[in-house]
Every structure is written in structure tokens, then in C-alpha cells.
Amino acid sequence: MTSYYVTTPIYYVNDAPHLGHAYATIAADALARFHRARGEDTFFLTGTDEHGQKIAQAAKKQGIEPHAFADAIVKRFHTAWKELDITNDDFIRTTDPRHKQIVAALWRRIEAAGDIYLGSYDGHYCIACEAFYPDSQLLPGNLCPLHQSEVSWVSEPSYFFRMSKYAAALLDHIATHPGFIRPETYRNEVVSFVTGGLRDLSISRTTFQWGIPVPGQDSHVVYVWLDALTNYISALGGPEASLFQRYWPASCHLIGKDILRFHAVYWPCFLMSAGLTLPETIVVTGFWTVRGTKIAKSMPATRVDPIGLAHDIGVDAVRYFLLREVPLGADGDFTYEALISRYNADLANDLGNLVSRTLTMTDKFCGGVIPPYSAELARSGPHAELVRTAAQSIRDSSEHYIEYAPSRALEAAWNLVRATNRYIDACQPWKLAKELTNEPNAGSRATATGAGIELDHVMRTALEALYCTARMVMPVMPEKAAALLAGLGVEGEFRAEAMGSWPDPQRFGGELEVGSAIVRGEALFPRIDKTTQTALLDAWSPERPEVTEGAARGDATSGGQARGGQTRGGRSSERAAQPDVQRSGQSDADATASSADRPLVTMSDVAKLDLRVATIKSARPVPGTRNLLIVELDVGGGETRRVVAGIAAAYRAEQLVGRDVIFLANLKPITIRGVRSEGMILAAGDNEVLGLSAVDRKVPAGTRVR
Ligand code: MSP
Predict the structure, then answer these.
(1) Which of 62, 109, 306, 600 has the fewest other C-beta atoms within 10 Å?
(2) Closest protein CA for atom 17 of ligand 1
(3) Looking at domain 3-285, what is its CATH homologous superfamily?
(4) pLDDT reported for residue 592
């Protein structure tokens, strides 16, 4: 069986995980899930990098031992990865005894090759990078080119690694293995760096203790990058172990662009010296920035909490956004507006709406069970076209995952989603259903009339397309893929099988079981309407600039890296004109109505709103937010409701208690910042609250408002 071994960088433990860390780990997880589904013997490794001056200093600052300091942060990484649905097979810590042992063994192999000698190092060192810098690479004022902070001067005895010896072999390897460093721009960067000449590398330090002792030379600790890079083989038990035989060389080291040189130059040279095979591919990711500044723990203004986002809009939506929005090698500027836009456009409108309309119509027209497929109809017209599109999507998506382009893999899956929406529009199953009811034998649905067969076939084709889609998006959105399969009535071992294997284009049309019941549950991706959007944006970034009209409409033309907005916006308005049955569950009508020009409503629209007088019982801030309050209301009949209201800029919590307000009681509940909000207090003002609603005399809580 083919093996697939994917690694993330091991993370420094000087602070809790942030979005940049989550990105690499989610990407590696999606790759691991995809390769498992292809039936490959997969091993997925992540972990933490705990030695070196940087961690020693951070621990000292807090007055704790480095090991205890690392333990506390490592727990946060474990929690984060659990919350983000990460399926790593192992978690390596560089303080693990198993790791220390292999670092010592690797040192000895390199030493035995005659590649280590004692010298002394005089030069500049950036503690944040844990890297030596020749003067030529520093910015004026002796600043680190990456961190723009002052570097230290180091002068100490040190062991050196004969890296210069491997320059030619490394260039040769890069030339003969075009996929060794991806994307190509990073490959070129490495080639020009190595061509410029490689110096021998200082690989031990003597001025601090927090590290792995050099074998036989306790006064030296191993340079933290030699220590850290070794994790990729120490987790396998080292070169003699059976796991090593099974998984080495690594198929993919996924890394950020700031650590390219360590992985694409130092690591291959160490491995060549130790007589070990080089990894197949080093895949380099770009940076996530916030308003152009790299997200980093040292920059509080760039902090984006991936776990908070996952709680608020779902873990799969966050995973989807990160992998879809920006191709792996590129930088991306993160905005909350772009996150919401993409959620609404791709997840709520395209996929969520397709699922909702397909299941609704299957319920209505096919008795809620999987209808038969007609091999004959499938041979021509729109039916045949959709079968071809499905096959193409499956092939493209798989190729893109293999080529480390998850964004394009998802795009390929969306080709099928959009084609299926168009297919339903073209086939108009609601018309076929109408024809059926007009037929003389209308009472008996079992009659195999033309319209009946076609109606069944259209619905079955759409259901099969959803089955393929669930499996194509599974690596990125495992939870939603499972929920979608459950909706299609795929249960138990069949679901496990569908989740654990890659779709086969040849089997399109024959995957689902005729007669098994579909399940119409909660909307897969409830649309984030304008009110929720404002509340979420308030919670996530209270100091944000005003929401742009595009973002408010769920139109992907605004914010960050969102692309293709014009088409998405266009589609929304087209769909708004279609009959209800196609769009049930998830309305996108608000996507087309601007605040200045709202559509006319009828009394029956108004009657849908459960408006009541409610009395505020208590109010308190949502921790960590500026504008959000948790408000508890007496809504009559002995019932208390809790809402999260974005009104703290206009009212202090204590001013609110005892007030009567108008309350919308049947607004779909949402969770904001981990708090379930069940309703909405009406207030005047658009983006900014100018005044709360009120009644002009005392009436009992719960009194209806009309
Ligand atoms: N400990 C080293 C890696 C050793 S691997 C043998 C290290 N750790 S780190 O915690 O600073 O960074 C880990 C990874 O997170 C790096 O690949 C880095 O590029 C990535 N990211 C950190 N901030 C990032 C963004 N803002 N955006 C995307 N990824 C970034 O380096």
C-alpha cells in the first residue's frame, strides 16, 4: 500500500495558537484526510518546538521553569487542534525523551560522516528567528529582516556543520526533483540562495542551557533548528524503527515561507550527511495578514482567534474559508467581512441552498425517499451533462488535492454544486410534478408515466450529485460532509465508507439506495443575515471600520481576498425570482434588498413576526467585547429569554434593567461568542444604535405588538 506522511511545522510554545498556526494545521489535516480517503497508509504529524533561547526567555519572564511553561502552552495546542477537528496521528514535543534520543543519534551520524568540527562563532543572532544572520542580510541599525527587531551579538565556542560540502548535491537534487519545493517561486528563491554559496553552519550553543546536550559535550546544547527539524524522524522512532521504514521519506513538509531556508537548505543537508533520503516535497504557505501586517503573537492588533470563530460560525466554515480563500503559497489579508461574504455566497447560498431545495423537493415529490435512477434518461440532455460534470469535478478535485491546491480542489467541487443548481433550474421538477398531478392516474405515484420517471430521475441525479459533493468536501469540511450524508439517508457503515473513500465517477447514479429515507434536518449553513452579521462583527472586532454595503449584502465583492463577487451577486438576484419550493429553508431574499430600497411586504409577512413587549431583567457585558451585552428579558408567560445585543456603545448595562422594550421572539437563535442569543431587541439606528424601542405606558411583559 502506498504510504503518505504529512507534517506541520512544530510550533513554538511562547504563546497560544493563532490563526497562522491553525492555517498550516488545517491544511495538513485536509491533506491527511484526502490521502486516507484514497486508501493510502497515512501518517499525520504535528507538535511543538520547546527548546532554545526564545522559549527560555519567555519562561523566565513569567518566572517559571521552561518545561512547566511549555506544558501549559502545549495543553492549549491540544485543545485548539481538538476544537478544529484535527486528526493528527501523533504529537511530538521536542522535550520528549524519545525525541532527545534521536537528536543525539542524528548528531552522531553526522559526526561519523566527518561533517562536524569545533570552532567559534562571532556574529549576529535573531532570537525570534533562532537564526544567525550575516551582516549583509540585516536591515540598517542591525535589525532582523523578518522581525525588524535588534539582533544580538554572539561570540562563543561552537560546533560547525560542513554545510558548504552539500551545496552542489542540493542544487542537483532540486534540479532533478522539480516538485521538491512548491510553489515554484520558493524553489527559485532557494536555488538563488544556494547558488550564492553556502557557509558552514553553527550547530551548538554554549551561552544557555535550555536544549538537548551535544553527545559527549555537555557544555554545548544542540542548535534549536537541528533539534527541531529532527522531529520529523524522531516521531517515527528514528532511522532504525519500523515506522521509519513504513513512512520515510516524508511525502510533504508543510511550512510557512519564513522557515523555508531551514527546511529546504539546512534539513536536506543534514539528511544527506546522515545518509538519509530527502523528503519528497516541501510545500510553502504564505502569510495571513490583518490590514497588511502579518498575524503574529507579538502583534496584538492582528490577533484573530480561530477557536472563537469556529464557535460562532462553525468549525467547517472556518476551515473552508482558510483553504478556499487563498491558494496555499500566496499571502492573504484576513477580514471578518470576507469570511462572512464567502460563508453566505458559497456555503449558505450555493451549497446550503442546493441541499435544502433538493431535500425539500425529494420530500414533496418523491415521498421523502431516494427515487430510482433511469440509465436511459442519463444518456442524454441535461442529465448526461450533469453526469459528465460530476465526473470532471471528481477528477479535477482529486488532482488539485494531490497537487497541493486545496483552494482549486474546492473550486472543482463547487463546479458540481453550481451545475446541479443549474440542472434543477433547467429540469424544473416542480413542473414535472404539476404535470403528474394533472394526469388521469395521478392518485397512483407508482405509475411509471414519462413525467414520473423523469421527476424521479431529476431528483435522484441531484441527490447523487450531493453525495459526490459531500465526499469531495470531506477533507476540508468533515462535519458538514457527515451531516449532508446523514441528510441523504446514508447511515452507519455506509456513511463511514462514504467518508473514508474517494468518489468513483463510474458509480454516479448507483450510489444511493432506492427507497431509503432522506432526513430533512437543520439547515446545513444557515445564512448569516444582516442583524447577525452586525452582532458577529461587533463581537469579533468592535473597533472595525463600518461594514461595507457589499459585505452587508453577502456579496463577495467586498473585503479581503474575496473574488468573483460579481457573478455570485448576480446569481443571488436570479434565484430570488424563483418559486418558493426551490429555495425553502434558506432565504437569500435579503441578499438583494438594500436598506434604502426594501421590498414591499404583505400583512402575512408581518404576521410571521412574533413581536412582544419584554422587560429587561438583567444586562452584563460579553467578556472581551466593547459593544455586546448579554441581556435577559421577561417575555411573558413566566418565560425568560437571553439575547446578545450590540448596544453597549449606547447604553450601560445598569441603565437597562427594568425597561420595557419591543422584542422579536421568533428570530432563529444563533450563538455569538459562545452565548446563545434567542431573539432580538428592536432599536432605532442602522449600523449604530440611536435609541431603544419602548411602549409609552406600562403594559404586561408578553403583550403582543402588531
Ligand atoms: N518552531 C518553528 C518551526 C520548526 S519546524 C521544524 C516555528 N514556529 S512558529 O510557531 O513560529 O511558526 C510555525 C508556523 O506557523 C510557521 O510555518 C509559520 O510560517 C506559521 N505562521 C506563523 N504566523 C503565520 C501567519 N500569520 N500566517 C500563516 N502562517 C504563519 O517557526
Answers:
(1) 600
(2) 256
(3) HUPs (3.40.50.620)
(4) 26
pLDDT at 584: 30
Contact in structure between 125 and 151 (CB atoms under 8 Å): yes
Is the backbone of residue 559 left (phi > 0), alpha (psi -120 to 50) or beta?
Answer: left
| List of the chain residues with pLDDT < 70 | 439-448, 542-599, 686-687
CATH code for the structural domain at 542-692: 2.40.50.140
d(CA 552, CA 201): 53
Residues marked as catalytic: 18, 21, 126, 129, 144, 147, 294, 297
Q: What angle do CA 49, 55, 56 make, to 5 degrees?
A: 135
Ligand 1 geometric centre to CA of 23 (Å): 10
Read off the amino acid at residue 104: A
What's the CA gap between 344 and 327, in Å, rounded?
20
Cα-flanking dihedrals φ and ψ of residue 505, to 5°? -55, -30
Task: Please give the pLDDT value at position 332.
Answer: 95
Q: Pull the grid cell for residue 214.
A: 551535544
Ligand 1 neighbour 12 (Cβ under 6 A): yes
Cβ atoms of residues 47 and 10 within 8 Å? yes
Ranges in the chain annotated CATH 2.40.50.140: 542-692
Domain with CATH 3.40.50.620 in the chain: 3-285
Q: Exposure pattern of 212-243 as b/e (b: 16+ CB <10 Å)?
A: bbbeeeeebbbbbbbbbbbbbbbbbebbebeb
Contact between residue 660 and residue 699 where contact means Cβ atoms under 8 Å apart: yes
Rounded to an integer, what distance in angstroms lies between the CA atom of residue 9 and that of residue 263? 10
Burial class of residue 47, CB neighbours in 10 A (0-12, 13-18, 19+): buried
Q: What is the 8-class DSSP label of residue 305?
A: -
Q: Using CA atoms, how far apart are residues 231 and 211, in angstroms rounded to an integer?
A: 14
Mutational test site, ligand 1, from 13, 18, 49, 263, max ligand atoms within 8 Å of CB: 49
Q: Is 49 in the pocket of ligand 1 (CB under 6 A)?
A: yes
Give the residue, by CA position, lying nearest to ligand 1 atom 25: 20
> Collapsing DSSP states into helix, strand and coil, what is residue 145?
coil
The helix (H) or strand (E) run that includes residue 152 is strand 152-161
pLDDT for position 542? 64
The DSSP code for 687 is S
Kindly report the backbone phi and psi dihedral angles of residue 352, in degrees, each rounded to the nearest multiple of 5, phi listed first.
-60, -45
The pTM of this model reads 0.78
Residue 283 CA to ligand 1 center (angstroms) comes to: 13
Grid cell in block for residue 527: 445564512
287 lines ligand 1 (CB under 6 A): yes
Any residues with CB less than 8 A from the CB of 427 and at least 6 apart, and which? 382, 383, 454, 458
For the chain, residues classed under CATH 1.10.730.10 are 333-507
Name which CATH class applies to 333-507: mainly alpha
pLDDT at 671: 81
Angle at 469 between CA 466 and CA 474, to 5 degrees: 130
Using CA positions, which residue lies closest to atom 18 of ligand 1?
Answer: 256
Q: Does ligand 1 come within 6 angstroms of the Cβ of 351?
A: no
* Cα 17 to ligand 1 centre (Å): 10
Task: Please choose, from the candidates 192, 203, 125, the residue with its C-alpha nearest in 3D space to the C-alpha of residue 162.
Answer: 203
126 and 54 Cβ atoms separated by less than 8 Å: no
Note the pLDDT tens digit of each residue in 167-182.
Answer: 999 999 999 999 999 9
